[in-house]
Design goal:
The protein is an alpha+beta fold. It folds into 5 domains: 115 residues, Beta-Lactamase (2-Layer Sandwich); 123 residues, Beta-Lactamase (2-Layer Sandwich); 100 residues, Beta-Lactamase (2-Layer Sandwich); 146 residues, Heat Shock Protein 90 (2-Layer Sandwich), CATH 3.30.565; 122 residues, 3-Layer(aba) Sandwich (Rossmann fold), CATH 3.40.50. Strands 2-1-5-4-3 form a 5-stranded antiparallel β-sheet, with helices on both faces. Helix 19 packs antiparallel against helix 20. The longest helix is centred in the middle third of the chain and has 47 residues. The radius of gyration is 35 Å and the shape is elongated.
């Protein structure tokens, strides 16, 4: 055991009782770098017993590299009278890698000399991970940004101007969102030039920063804050995200802690977790502010109370009494319970009880720490939702692929029958109606893929007037709401994925219909627009889709959340309709805006880019070719047979393969025989075999000029939207008609 070095053994015993069950890591280290006291949390994370640490040096526990690297320097500065705080990742024996906030405080002896250091470490891993998750997506970013407990501001790295703030920022700075946005970030501080330099330096370095500073409120009050800043990228543009935490109370607590002789009491009240001290009869002797805030009672309201306490819900009484009795018997464990706030709100907690004994081993008090785990439970629910959504996406992809394969056999046979038959016969007319029905079924398959990840649109130049009208009418079938349409004859064409756009219109119209439970009219109008450059739209031509209802309107408090996943005010809603529409339009390079007034209805405006004015084109025609050799790779016999007959009808010679491996062999054999294939049509996915993605690599390795077209029912696969990057020359989605196959084959073989 190291010499006393100024620590009173009696004081150490008293401190040990107080800090034993604190959730923070707490240690007392004397000036010989020897541990004199640690709490239970410190022992648990290091996987050590008390005997393994007390009396041993910091270098022995943490290793020479960490000790000499930075810990020794911090301790020496602390021994010299400096209080130090920093944040860093550490690897622990039990929980593994954790992000910690570490503070070193000088320990003053009875003669006011510094006898050692008190080190308090707080686990901030969940906060650190949450900050990093903010960067992953703009939707998640917005949700987390608005609900942070700390003030947050986003600044333009080029101009230094504030472009976004959250509600906590308005409260901290005493200014409205409108007052803050557009202000230069340096004006938030009492020394603007100093912070201008900090901003420029941080942007140039691009690294995370964490430091303490000051801000000036609108009323002139100077407030000390902790500032965490990082450079983030949103929509390919760099911004700086600053998190401001008011540390007025922490500064005050630190000053009191360093000056007060009542160190133990200061230590208790500085811990964020709730702490209570009970007498031997179970009566409430003391508690910290965190516990009072947690349950909503003032300290004077609860001191002296005996069980059952008012924060024990009646329905949970048996469970809580059982834990209470086990704690009185000295059982030290972690228990999860439900408590009740003064206002009646229930919330989950983790409680860690322990006994405080005197030198003779007699129990004199009971100490318990409490952690509110409401946020952790909410995060677990959100994670479960995300996992369920991912599972739905995987299931939808498989169903849609098989469904589209079946539809391909049906549609291509119907299409062939139309071309073989008399154009004016009643049978042909019925076949054309069946063809339309199958094409609508194709859209149904596409809707299954709406919620799966990576669903990039497969766009083509289309006239969307009829599509919007049909989708809106279909969405209102059987309801008490009528749709009024307005579509100009000269409407521009847009580049869009038909199936995804149908889903957007359906979701938006259903949303409008649900806002009018007593019935009414949804007005849907389309118009051409030539927009100047602005924040939402680039300069150019657009088609504007306006969807207007005459319903209840959207309250101001709900408006920022309407495009958030899972946000809904409807009892049976799941909160994915508008979120899905927003995601699809964004992936199209478009924009959605909303105008609403409570009691006067809501207007959603959708803007889609129009590359060129509408042109008349003939659809459904086929092109007969003389010559051309095509290899079809597909595991579905019906698809191969039907596609082969279509190609023969078009004048092509046809070869067949069941998977990628067979396609490679057939292709090579044809080359060797001097009768090469001019085109390969490949299924992207072959269950249990080589699909098109892998097969094209092999084909291009010995024939770089190979022409290959993807044929797939997985229209949401990223390869479909970016086929050229994977070595393909084109794509034809299942199900397809004779004219669809004719167009792609003619384009590949004739270059037209």
């Amino acid at each position: 055991m190291a010499p006393n070095a100024g620590f009173s053994e009696e004081a150490l015993r008293n401190y040990e009782k107080i800090i034993s069950n604190a959730s923070d890591h707490i240690s007392f280290i004397d000036k010989t770098y020897t541990y004199r006291l640690v709490n239970q949390t410190y022992l648990k994370v290091h996987g050590k017993s008390k005997e393994d640490i007390i009396g041993h040096t910091v270098k022995e526990l943490l290793g020479e590299e960490i000790f000499n690297g930075f810990v020794k320097d911090y301790l020496d500065r602390c021994f010299a009278g400096e209080s130090i705080s920093y944040e860093q990742w550490f690897n622990f024996a039990v929980p593994g890698r954790r992000f910690m906030s570490v503070s070193y405080y000088p320990y003053f002896g009875e003669d006011e000399s510094i006898d050692g250091a008190v080190v308090i470490s707080r686990d901030l891993t969940e906060l650190k991970v949450a900050e990093e998750l903010v960067k992953e997506s703009e939707i998640k970013y917005r949700h987390l940004f608005e609900n942070l407990n700390d003030a947050a501001l986003v600044g333009d790295t080029e101009t230094g101007l504030i472009v976004e703030v959250n509600r906590q920022a308005e409260a901290l700075f005493g200014m409205t969102r409108q007052e803050l946005i557009g202000m230069h970030q340096s004006r938030l501080h009492p020394a603007p030039e100093t912070y201008k330099e900090k901003f420029r330096d941080h942007v140039a370095r691009g690294r995370e920063a964490d430091y303490e500073g000051e801000i000036i409120r609108k009323d002139g009050t100077i407030v000390p804050v902790n500032i965490s800043a990082s450079v983030i990228k949103l929509s390919e543009k760099k911004f700086i995200l600053g998190i401001f935490r008011d540390i007025t109370e922490r500064r005050r607590a630190e000053e009191e802690l360093l000056q007060s002789k009542e160190f133990a009491e200061s230590l208790i009240y500085s811990i964020n977790d709730g702490i209570t001290v009970l007498g031997r009869n179970g009566s409430m002797h003391s508690c910290n502010d965190a516990f009072c805030k947690m349950i909503g009672y003032g300290r004077q309201e609860i001191l002296g109370l005996t069980p059952p306490f008012p924060w024990w819900p009646e329905e949970e009484m048996d469970s809580i009494k059982s834990v209470f009795e086990r704690a009185l018997r000295g059982e030290e464990a972690e228990f999860e319970l439900i408590y009740k706030k003064k206002n009646g709100e229930r919330f989950p907690i983790i409680i860690n009880p322990s006994q405080v004994k005197d030198r003779s081993g007699r129990v004199i008090n009971y100490v318990a720490t409490f952690k509110d785990i409401t946020e952790r439970k909410r995060m677990e629910k959100e994670l479960l939702k995300a996992q369920k959504l991912e599972s739905i996406g995987i299931l939808a992809g498989g169903i849609a692929h098989d469904f589209n394969n079946l539809l391909t056999g049906i549609l291509s046979n119907i299409s062939l029958s139309i071309f073989y038959g008399d154009p004016e016969s009643r049978v042909t007319k019925r076949l054309r109606e069946a063809e339309k029905a199958v094409l609508r079924s194709k859209d149904l398959a596409q809707q299954l893929l709406t919620f799966s990840e990576g669903g990039l649109p497969v766009k083509s130049l289309i006239h969307i007037g009829k599509l919007v009208a049909d989708s809106a009418s279909f969405a209102l079938l059987g309801s008490n709401v009528k749709c009024e349409m307005s579509v100009p004859e000269d409407l521009f064409k847009v580049e869009a994925d038909e199936g995804q756009l149908r889903q957007v219109i359906k979701n938006m119209v259903i949303n409008a219909q649900q806002s009018m439970p007593e019935g009414g009219i949804v007005e849907v109008s389309l118009s051409n627009l030539e927009a100047a450059e602005n924040i939402a739209l680039k300069k150019g031509k657009y088609v504007k889709i306006e969807i207007r209802d005459h319903g209840e309107g959207i309250p101001d408090e709900h408006l920022p959340k309407i495009f958030d996943p899972y946000f809904t005010t409807k009892e049976k809603g799941i909160g994915l309709g508008l979120a899905t529409a927003y995601s699809i339009i964004k992936n199209h390079g478009g924009h959605i805006e909303v105008h609403t007034s409570v009691g006067n209805g809501t207007v959603f405006n959708i803007f889609l880019a129009a590359p060129e004015p509408m042109k008349t084109c003939k659809e459904g025609s086929i092109k007969i070719m003389s010559g051309g050799k095509v290899l079809i790779m597909d595991d579905d016999e019906i698809i191969k047979e039907t596609a082969g007959e279509i190609l023969n009808y078009l004048g092509c010679k046809v070869g067949y393969a069941n998977d990628g491996a067979e396609a490679i062999e057939v292709y090579k054999a044809a080359q060797a025989a001097g009768e090469p294939f001019g085109l390969v049509i490949m299924d992207l996915t072959i269950p249990g075999g080589m699909g098109g993605k892998e097969a094209i690599k092999h084909l291009r390795s010995f024939d770089p000029e190979v022409k290959a077209v993807i044929s797939s029912g997985y229209s949401n696969d990223p390869i479909i939207a970016d086929f050229g990057e994977y070595g393909f020359s084109g794509v034809i989605l299942k199900p397809y008609r004779v004219s669809d196959l004719s167009d792609i084959v003619h384009k590949m073989l004739k270059g037209q």
